[in-house]
Write a structure and sequence with these properties.
Layout (H helix, E strand, L loop, with lengths): L5 E2 L86 E2 L8 E6 L2 E2 L3 E6 L5 E10 L7 E9 L13 E9 L16 E5 L14 E9 L6 E10 L14
Parallel strand pairs: 1-11, 2-6, 5-11
Antiparallel strand pairs: 3-4, 3-6, 5-6, 6-9, 7-8, 7-10, 10-11
Length: about 250
């Protein structure tokens, strides 16, 4: 059973008694706030800019749908991060949220909680992308990575990719360890989800203002997937182009 809810411009979903059902790139200096998933057993909708999704211990196989309010909902990245997993605590890339049980995750874009707009950026390795920062917790990973499934659809442009989706990744690894640049377990680890553009997209501004759908699933070990669905409007800054993002640019 996985927890799922389709949300227009809002970013909130929750799993209750009714549970329902890539490529990798360097994230560079990308960062953001998040949408969140919890095991509270209730569905919620707020008016700020983030999302909530949760897993459920229920045994039924139905799905929970959260109504769209047309407003943006909010959540913030928790500042309570544990230290190295060798100490018996959570890895650095996992957080704790007071009163929240079970696996959850937040999504952000450009330093803010993910809201109604998803903005394109130039990644640290010179690739244009739509980058999602992730914050997650409520479970212990088996190593320094947590896995996500991602499907990103942009109507009119999905056929540019051989997968039939603008971007798709299964088992996308997000680094949650405590290593840093230059350290043995650090380096060019992805600390979020870098949704790269199809090679056949020759003019990035063609997708500016297009309404897209986002489907992200956290895959915690030994637990049900935590699913987040949202509709977002794409934004492409005027200064970005295939010629202005790349090595040495």
């Amino acid at each position: 059973m996985a927890c799922a809810a389709m949300i227009g411009t809002s970013m909130s979903a929750a799993c209750g008694e009714t549970g329902g059902s890539e490529g990798n790139a360097d994230s560079g200096d990308s960062s953001g706030g998040t949408g969140s998933a919890t095991a509270s057993g209730t569905s919620s909708a707020s008016t700020s800019a983030s999302s909530s999704a949760s897993t459920s211990a229920a045994t039924s196989a139905s799905s929970t749908t959260v109504a769209t309010t047309g407003e943006t909902e909010s959540s913030t990245i928790s500042d309570t991060s544990a230290t190295d997993s060798t100490t018996g605590e959570l890895p650095c890339g996992l957080s704790e949220k007071p009163g929240q049980d079970g696996p959850w995750f937040d999504l952000g874009n450009l330093g803010e909680p993910l809201g109604a707009t998803l903005t394109m950026e130039c990644g640290g390795q010179g690739a244009l992308m739509f980058f999602l920062q992730t914050d997650q917790g409520g479970f212990l990973p088996v190593d320094d990575y947590v896995m996500y499934d991602v499907t990103f659809d942009v109507p009119g442009f999905d056929d540019l990719s051989p997968t039939g989706h603008f971007y798709e990744a299964q088992g996308y690894p997000v680094y949650v360890g405590c290593g840093g640049i230059g350290e043995p377990d650090g380096g060019f680890n992805t600390v979020g989800i870098a949704m790269l553009l199809p090679d056949a997209l020759t003019d990035v501004h063609m997708v500016d203002g297009v309404e897209a759908t986002l489907h992200v699933s956290l895959l915690p070990p030994d637990d049900e997937p935590v699913v987040f669905d949202a509709t977002v409007t794409l934004a492409v800054p005027q200064y970005l182009s295939l010629d202005t993002c790349g090595f040495g640019v």
